[in-house]
Amino acid sequence: MVGDRERTEDLLKRAKTAIDEQHTPLARELLRACATGIQSVDSQETRDGAEIRAWARLHLKVRLAQTWITFEDHGLSLAAEAMTGVHAACLAGGHADLAALCDVQQAVLSGRSGDVAGALRLMRRAESGRALLTDGEQARLLLNRGSLSAFLSDPADASRDFAEAAFLALGEDMAALRFKAIHNQGYTEFLLGNFPGALSLMEQADAMDVDVDRGIARLDRARVMLEAGLIDEARQVLIDALAHTSTAGSEHDRGEIELELARCEMLMGDSPSALTRAATARRRFHRRKEPGWRRTALIVELETRNTLSAHARERLASVLATAAAAEGDEVVRQRAVLVHAEALIDQGLPDQARAVLAQAPALTRSPHVATRLHTRHVSARISDGSGRPDLAARMLKRAADELGAAGRASAGLDLRTALTVHGADLVNLDLDLAMRHGSAARVLSRAELWRDVVRSLPPVR
């Protein structure tokens, strides 16, 4: 009987390793074998109390691991339902450490589904039981808490968690965790603006002899390349990552890669392809019942412009803004409001566009220069359409000043997005206003203004 339990525990250990290495099909088979072994023992009645408790604990561990497979196969809703049952059973059985692991896993799955605030609440709850966990389990907690911190714009805190996770994951059976910790620490260096350090740590992780799916690691590396201005190279890395995950990786990861490819192709001026990528990701997240990611994919679709009619963009943006507001997703709501207002001005409806844009006054204070410039452009068009060309010209002058200031502070991806996606629109509108309402000298001065702004932008090093 003990031998049977040891064999099942070994299968579970191998399944967890497969999950860490992102080999979902293998993990699914191993966990199925674990469940079969437990069922065969449950049919026997010649066990003492200690043996019954040991098997019951093992069964809870298997059920906990299976929730990850449920998430990969069916999305968060069913996985969360299963997790609730496992958590309650852990508490009822007096397994506080397993209950803490349930909190960690629920936080991870919530975060991957786009509910970052909910994930953070669960991770904080799990911290109270951290001392009950093994080194490997603590490393997983730190890895995922670091990922949340990075997402919530606290890369320094994230880097500390990743460094501690790498230290805890020195055991031979934790190579996959160590790989992730080192790679993620590289990603935090990217967030801190240290591009060479980021690529160095990512390459250090990639050189490790560990059988880990490289799909998300390649996605992160492509993001660093995009930030450094290596757009063509980043696109090729993303295409390779997509091809890899199509045969061996996670369907959720494929959605994230498709979205990053959409952004990359927008920067390259290929709006039709960007639209196709974003639409594919949206359908994928819809099938997986991941509404947060689905909203993000839909707003990227709408922001590709020129690929949907103004009426279609107006209708979809309005629905998206309402849905995002209901879920407390303020970032997507504001972006949807901006697209809605732009679609209305495209239809020659400046008064309606102004009323819609007033629903998101914080857009002009966005931390992203691309969003601020997009807002300036839409506002200037509304003023021009309402018979206020002088006000429109002042707004465009403010946009030029903002772009110049942003260039002196940073030369990263946000600035290039502002230039590539919105810069030409701003220049064209400003020159059009000058030609319609000014002299040749004014046209020349406006052209020189924008030329000086672009010339002053530093390269990324």
Report on this model:
With 461 residues, the protein is an all-alpha fold. It has helices spanning 2-20, 24-42, 49-74, 76-92, 96-112, 116-127, 135-151, 155-168, 175-191, 195-206, 215-227, 231-248, 251-267, 271-287, 291-303, 310-326, 330-346, 350-357, 369-385, 389-409, 413-437, 440-455.
Summarize the topology.
Layout: H1 2-20, H2 24-42, H3 49-74, H4 76-92, H5 96-112, H6 116-127, H7 135-151, H8 155-168, H9 175-191, H10 195-206, H11 215-227, H12 231-248, H13 251-267, H14 271-287, H15 291-303, H16 310-326, H17 330-346, H18 350-357, H19 369-385, H20 389-409, H21 413-437, H22 440-455
Number of strands: 0
Low-confidence stretches: none
- What is the distance, rounded to the nearest whole angstrom, between the alpha carbons of the first and last residues? 63 Å
- What is the CA-atom radius of gyration, in angstroms? 26 Å
The whole-number mean of residue pLDDT values reads: 85
Which of globular, elongated, flat, extended, rod-shaped describes the shape? elongated
Order of helices and strands: HHHHHHHHHHHHHHHHHHHHHH
How many helices in DSSP terms?
22
